[in-house]
Amino acid sequence: MSGPVYDRVALIGLGLIASSMFWAIRKAGLAREVVGTARSAETRETAREIGLCDRVTDTVAEAVEGADLVVLAVPVGAMGAVAEAMAPRLAPGATVTDVGSVKRAVVEAVGPHIPEGVHFIPGHPLAGTEHSGPRSGFATLFDNRWCLLVPEPGTEPEAVARLRALWEGMGAHVEEMDADHHDLVLAVTSHAPHLIAYTMVGVADDLRRVTDSEVIKYSAAGFRDFTRIAASDPTMWRDVFLTNKDATLEILGRFTEELFALQRAIRTGDGEMLHAYFTRTRAIRRGIIEAGQDTDAPDFGRVKTGA
Ligand SMILES: NC(=O)c1ccc[n+]([C@@H]2O[C@H](COP(=O)([O-])OP(=O)(O)OC[C@H]3O[C@@H](n4cnc5c(N)ncnc54)[C@H](O)[C@@H]3O)[C@@H](O)[C@H]2O)c1
Ligand SMILES: O=C(O)C(=O)C[C@]1(C(=O)O)C=C[C@@H](O)C=C1
User: Fold this and answer.
1) Which of 97, 103, 236 has most ligand 1 atoms within 8 Å of its beta carbon, as the pocket-test mutant?
2) 123: which residues sit within 8 A by CB, 6+ positions away?
3) Ligand 1 near 109 CB (within 6 A)
4) How do strand 123-125 and strand 146-149 relate by DSSP bridges?
5) Quick check: CB of 37 below 6 Å from ligand 1?
6) Which run of H or of E encompasses 147?
7) Integer Cα distance of 84 and 94 in angstroms
8) How remote is the CA of residue 79 from the centroid of ligand 1, in Å?
9) Which residues contact 130 (CB under 8 A, 6 or more apart)?
10) In the prediction, which pLDDT does 301 show?
11) Would the CB of 59 count as within 6 Å of ligand 1?
């Protein structure tokens, strides 16, 4: 078991990611105290009831008081306002991080509110589920998953090393990355796939009226995976698309071109093209496995550590 990495951690927003962080920090003894707060009284009440956090405060200002690590775990579109509210109460030498799914927008919204003498190290754990809220977290969510940190050039290496130690203590593997590169990579691996899943489930729902619910009743495994993804939190995903607009549109443009090419191959009966295409994509999945990624559903994206 690792010793405490921080004295007092403040979790702002008590949903899936923050509650998972609390259980993981507690399990590994990574902080002496974890203080939490959430915008809604109902969430704070639930947190107190289930013992989520050592202390739950009613305001963000109270939560960050004396904390040496503050974690913003709210939807990306809410990060700037939360940062503004807490800024005057941040302790000198503290670190502020976040877990948002988009990084450039967070750097721009939060960065300007961070006072001199406070470290700001944006982050993103590549782990989640379709569930949200204070009851949805669990201690093993980050086990063997990536966490990407995007420190601005000039950030104190000791502050980055400490945050890295926290994530590693929670079971994650840490890499550093530039914010724009992060947003492009995630547009391909997470954001566009979510939009495609939302669309496919929307199409099936439209069709329900003409197929008398059969699309739902006979939904096959592939479609079920889409419905899981499409059940993800609407606020979170609205904010992801509004804040990672350029990269997502770039990937969707490419996706549409490929879709048209496949559509044409189907219409013209070009079986050779279809076969060659599917052979190439199958090889990509095999390549991921050979590169050490465990792709067994539902853990696609885990980092393989053992034999
Ligand atoms: N869910 C995932 O799979 C996943 C994975 C990695 C990162 N993330 C990122 O983590 C962050 C939190 O996501 P989550 O899944 O824990 O969400 P969640 O919906 O489970 O929890 C969000 C929390 O933020 C609070 N909140 C919502 N709007 C707010 C506002 N305007 N002001 C203040 N607080 C507000 C909610 O009350 C709740 O406590 C998001 O930025 C998301 O992009 C999510
Ligand atoms: O497993 C899921 O449910 C997820 O969608 C998790 C997922 C992803 O796309 O992999 C979703 C958003 C995040 O920012 C990180 C992880």
Assistant:
1) 236
2) 97, 98, 99, 147, 148, 149, 150, 163, 167
3) no
4) antiparallel
5) no
6) strand 146-149
7) 16
8) 10
9) 228, 229, 231, 232, 233
10) 47
11) no
User: Strand order of the sheet with strand 95-98?
Assistant: 55-56, 31-37, 6-12, 69-72, 95-98, 119-120
**What's the CA gap between 14 and 133, in Å, rounded?**
7
Number of separate helices (H) and strands (E) present in the chain: 13, 11
Stated length of the chain: 307
Q: What confidence score (pLDDT) does residue 292 get?
A: 64
Task: Reply yes or no on domain 6-177 having CATH 1.10.630.10.
Answer: no
Q: Which mutation among 20, 98, 101, 186 tests ligand 2's pocket best, with the greatest number of atoms within 8 A of CB?
A: 101
CATH of region 181-297: 1.10.3660.10
Question: In this predicted model, what pLDDT tens digit does every residue of 169-199 receive, in sequence order?
Answer: 999 999 999 999 999 999 999 999 999 999 9
C-alpha 73 – ligand 1 centre gap (Å): 5
Average pLDDT rounded to a whole number, residues 25-43: 98
What is the pLDDT, as a whole number, of residue 212?
A: 65
Distance (Å) from CA 193 to ligand 2 centroid:
10
Cα dihedral 281, 282, 285, 289 in deg (nearest 10): -150
Q: Ligand 2 atom 11: the closest Cα is on which residue?
A: 128
Decide: pTM greater than 0.90.
Answer: yes
Residue nearest to atom 23 of ligand 1 (CA): 13
Residue 299 has pLDDT above 70, yes or no: no
Predicted complex ipTM exceeds 0.95: yes
Ligand 2, residue 190: give the atom nearest the CA.
9
pLDDT in tens, 255-287: 999 999 999 999 999 999 999 999 999 998 887
Domain segments of the chain: what residues? 6-177, 181-297
Contact 118, 95 (CB under 8 A): yes
